[in-house]
Amino acid sequence: MGQRLIDICNQLGNSQILASQNALLRSIENADLFPIAYAKSETANRKISYFSKIPKIRIQVVTSFNNFDFVSSEISGKLITLIPHTALQSPDLTDLGGIASLQDSLIILTSNSANRIGLERLCELVEQTPHTIYAIHDFDSHHWHDLGIRLAAIADVYLPGHPTEHLVASRINPHVISGIYTGTTQWSRTFLLDHIPKLGDTQRSEEPFGPHSHYPSFEYRNKVVSTFTSRSKMIRLQVTSDTNSFLQQTNEERWGEWINYKIHLIAPVAHDIPNRFFDALITGGIPMIPNGLKSHVISAGIPKEYFVCYSPSDIIDPTDLFGKARKLFDEQGKIGCIKRSLFAFENYHVDMVIEKIVAAVSRHYLDRYFP
Fold this sequence. Notes:
It is a single chain. By secondary structure, the chain is of the alpha/beta class. The protein is built from 17 helices and 11 strands. It has helices at residues 5-13, 16-28, 34-51, 85-89, 111-117, 119-128, 145-154, 167-172, 189-195, 219-229, 240-247, 251-258, 275-282, 294-299, 312-316, 319-348, 350-366; strands at residues 58-63, 74-75, 78-84, 105-110, 132-138, 157-160, 210-213, 235-238, 263-265, 286-290, 308-310. The strands form 3 sheets. Strands 2-3-1-4-5-6 form a 6-stranded mixed β-sheet, sandwiched between helices. A 3-stranded parallel β-sheet has the order 9-10-11, with helices on both faces. The longest helix has 30 residues, at 319-348.
């Protein structure tokens, strides 16, 4: 006989998890963070006033390894200037032509690029460029809180990349914009336009695919993946260096590995919708996600026939799960591969992520549209 329901309720009520949540709520409900938010608001007022008077706002995107490095130079008629993150590390910005190159611009970067530039250096740049808007898309908002909270204080516009709570960030920065996911970032628009039409010609393995990086801190996620590993040799935990080696392969090599498989395991870290979910779709596969993500995925506009969900019972015995996912793939056939890929391409390719960020800054920060 299982544990009584009231005993489960009492166990949760006395747990450290609940105590931590209550402590966080008490912390943000005091006034200590208000001076930071007030300063951010005053800065925003000055910038919004300035940008309301200039005819043209440049859009510049900071690139680094696996972070916006496949963004196009033109998106929906808007010219995009790409800036290697290393160029911003130079004290005098020699490669960019000096600090003036950042003025009158919207600068878009990820949390990883911000970390690679260095927070001290990024703070210097923000302070030196009062006529620049910095929008930071936080790829790790669901777990890297030490970085994310600082970025919320630095950014003019802070964009968490995952559907988790943003209580602290919203107390610090009055311009937090959620709902823009990280999308798929591994391939350029040109590459995809050439390869998507050929997706239906690929013979795919029946094996579920799902190598995940092993992070010691994420015990639950690691346990989920390792449990699935006993049922599929292509689901495994791997060291970060193996993940980086994969990302350093050619576009063709990475594409070839993804399209070898019909179905893909998605094991999130902390209720996030990771890149690999969108990578599975854009390569024509069927992602398998936890039940808890279903409402978020549907809210993101993903058709319900493009994914399957798994429960804790499926983790222990995934036979029915794998069979359901394979059947869904086979029923939709070659046309289904291309439809899933085109959907991801048109809505969640990195170019579309940039377009959504530009639109969000226009609506929610500047209250004007970029020409």
